[in-house]
Amino acid sequence: MSNSSRTEKDSLGEVEIPADKLWGAQSQRSLHNFAIGQDRFPSEFIHDYALLKKAAAQVNELLGDLSATEANLIQQACDEILSGELDAHFPLSVWQTGSGTQTNMNLNEVIANVGNQIAGSAPGSNTPLHPNDHVNRSQSSNDSFPTVMHITARRYGLQKLLPALARLISAVTEQEVACKDMIKSGRTHMMDATPVTLGQEFGAFRSQLEFSHQQIESALGSLRELAIGGTAVGTGLNTRREWASTIVEKINQLSGMDFLPATNKFAQLAAHDALLNLHSQLNLLATALMKIGNDIRLMNSGPRCGLAEITLPANEPGSSIMPGKVNPTQVEALTMVCTRVMGNQTTVSIAASQGQFQLNVYKPVIIHCVLESQQLLADAMHSFADNCIAGLVANESRLGFYTEQTLMLVTALNPHIGYDNAARAAKHAHEKQLTLREAVLELGLLSGDDYDRLIQPESMLGPNK
User: Fold this and answer.
1) What's the mean pLDDT when you consider all of the chain?
2) Is the pLDDT of residue 179 over 50?
């Protein structure tokens, strides 16, 4: 051992650890054995794990399984982690054991070493705190890791994702109101259709987003059940009868949330249906955002050779070679996020299906994808709302031009001249490059006055009988 390292032991033997690091032997082995990629658990996940460990210390003291001194040292160490001061001591890769055991032990080892330092002992001394015997008491990685999965995923959803979605709904609603009287040509199959208002289009966007909000809110409710108390396989071996209910009460006190003991802890260890359900709703939101983003992209196309129905804010130059070009970059960023979320949906679906017997061993990748999707969606929706939707401007002259040009105004004539004659008029207008009015008059289907009375786009925006 050099002055720059210390020696710690685990069940496999001695391990050299950098002297300035607070993790222990199992964490060091994980760093060596799983040097895979750059993905790490976010600090929020680590902090929620520390919150769980703090709650466990309180309950173990309450039930007589830890001394007041031991419990107090653990809680002080957890508070340091919760402050963010020790984030650098949690470096393990997401790509590790499928139960998350190494991350659980990373928490146990850092907490023990910090607590022992507070008590005047050296890191690695296991005195007075042992990572397993004291910090991990009444717990297993198999129930503590999925407990934190639910805590952090629910926290992300309530504190980040839903507020961002609400902000976007608000921005879209403002445009719905502002554009309620702006008539334009509808489009179905990417072809001209009967008139709508731009406000009606934004209203459809709002409705999609509100539906996603409802579904995500419901899915987050399913995360209230916590696996803690199941220990290794769901039976609760090495815990007291009061353990599960009491620790959930403590978690709620510390987190300000409203969790419940799982009704079936075997299912919480062996499957992650609630998280898959949540991600399915994130995927639903991504598909809605993809549709909305692409509609905005198409309406903005131009400015002279596209639809040019709206103009998006010019946030930055769009081309390194074409001067004056401005691109729909917020839409591009949003829709790229959507593709990532859709990919994560496949990953979570496959991973959630891989629970063999009493344990699903794809836990780290499931929570990694769920948290990443929530974070990306939240950030992208804030950016899209503030940097795109809020500053969007309708081009009313172009909207009016398309309304006048669409041949599908002829639909309003169906009750008066019949479908076949209406179709003949539209075809004649298109082939002869006439206006619809000119075609109807040329074919002798209506008088000019009757045409003007029947073809009024503002009366074609809803039921007219």
Assistant:
1) 96
2) yes
Kind of pairing, strands 359-360 and 355-356? antiparallel
185-207 pLDDT, tens digit each: 999 999 999 999 999 999 999 99
Measured CA to CA, the distance from residue 422 to residue 445 in angstroms comes to 9
State yes or no: is 189 an active-site residue: yes
- Among 11, 189, 320, 397, which one carries the catalytic annotation? 189
In a domain, 465, yes or no: no
CA 80 to chain centre: 28
Q: Is the pTM of this model over 0.85?
A: yes
Q: Is residue 273 located within the same domain as residue 382?
A: yes
Residue type, 445: L
Number of domains in the chain: 3
**Tokens for 51?**
């919150």
Same domain, 191 and 339: yes
Q: Are residues 161 and 276 in the same domain?
A: yes
Per-residue pLDDT band for 465 (boundaries 50, 70, 90) equals low
- Say whether 130 is catalytic: no
User: How many other CB atoms are there within 10 angstroms of residue 69's CB atom?
Assistant: 13
Instruction: Please tell me which residue in 319, 353, 447, 459 is annotated as part of the active site.
Output: 319
296: closest CA among 286, 287, 309, 283?
309
Helix axes 273-300, 363-384, angle to 10 degrees: 30
In this structure, is residue 81 part of a structural domain?
Answer: yes
CATH of the domain at 65: 1.10.275.10
Cβ proximity of 116 and 127 under 8 Å: yes
Give the Cα separation of 396 and 347 in Å (integer). 44
Pair 384, 293: CB distance under 8 Å: yes
Q: In 116-208, which ranges are E strands?
A: 183-188, 191-197
Q: Whole domain around residue 419: which residue ranges?
A: 406-459
Same domain, 202 and 128: no
Taking the C-alpha atoms of residue 267 and residue 282, their distance in angstroms, rounded to an integer, is 23
Check the CA dihedral 322-328-333-337 and report its sign. Answer: negative
Interval 218-235: pLDDT, tens = 999 999 999 999 999 999
Residue that is last in its domain, among 397, 422, 449? 397
Residue of 201, 203, 206, 251 lying closest to 226 (CA atoms): 251
Chain position carrying tokens 């330092």: 117
Q: Secondary structure of the chain: what % helix, strand, coil (to 5)?
A: 60, 10, 30
Tokens, residue 91: 């470096």
